[in-house]
Structure formats: C-alpha cells, structure tokens
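Suppose you are handed a protein chain with no further information: no name, no annotation, nothing but its sequence. What can you learn? This example shows the usual starting point.
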Amino acid sequence: MKQSLLLICVLLSITLATAQQNEKPVQVPAEVTKSLQEKFPEASGVEWSQKKEKYKAKFKVAKIKHEVWLDKTGVVSKHQYEIKKAELPKAVIDAVAKDYSAYTAHDCERADENGVTTYKVELKSAGGKKKVTFSADGKVIPKNDD
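A reasonable first move is to predict its three-dimensional structure. Written in structure tokens, the prediction is:
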C-alpha cells in the first residue's frame, strides 16, 4: 500500500513538472495587446493563450470575467462575459421557465461572435446541473462538440 501511494505521488510530481515545462509564454503581437487595451481600458489580470491564429485574453472588468478572442491584427472575433440573470432577454427567461421548470438558472454568460449573440445558462436542480445555450430569441442551440 505504501509503495502504491509513493508511486502515485512520484507519477503525479512528474506529470505536474512536465506540464509546467510545456507551458510557454504566449508571444502576443503589439497590435493585439493595443487593441485589447483600447477596447477594454479597465481590464485587469489579463492572461493570454493562443490557439492556431487566434489570441484569447481572459481578464476582469469591475469584477466581471471576460474572455475575448482576437486575430493577429487585433480584430475581436468573439467576446464572452458574465451577466446577471436579470440581464437575460425575456425570451430566454421564458424558455427556461417553460422547458426547464425543474431547474433554477445560476451562472449566466453572454457571447457575441460574428454578429450573433448567444446566452449560456447554468441550470441546477436536485438531480444535478447542465449548461444550455440559447439564442437571443430563446431557442436552444445544440452543443458543438468540436
């Protein structure tokens, strides 16, 4: 038993050390950082990551979490941020009440991407929780598994 526990600790240490070594700081072009600063001058705690040709900035503005995806020229392609339940469109609130009456809405997010606004709502019940994405008119948007 002691040997198994020791082996698990060693393997966990090696895994964590390897993960830390693989995390390289993202080299964000000046145009991208400048664009973010112009659009969100109050942003604090900015953390950058990169996926293919997109740069993702995670930050807070007045205690509200934001995620913004920008291309290499600084153009924002997606902006996702926390909102209060009261800020959900009436159509989304009505859809939750009608189709998910056993659930209570909790964490809510708004996403603006390519001119389309969606709302992700975490729903909780005694049986568990789920996240559902709605269009502005209250229609459920199926999950995209890519």
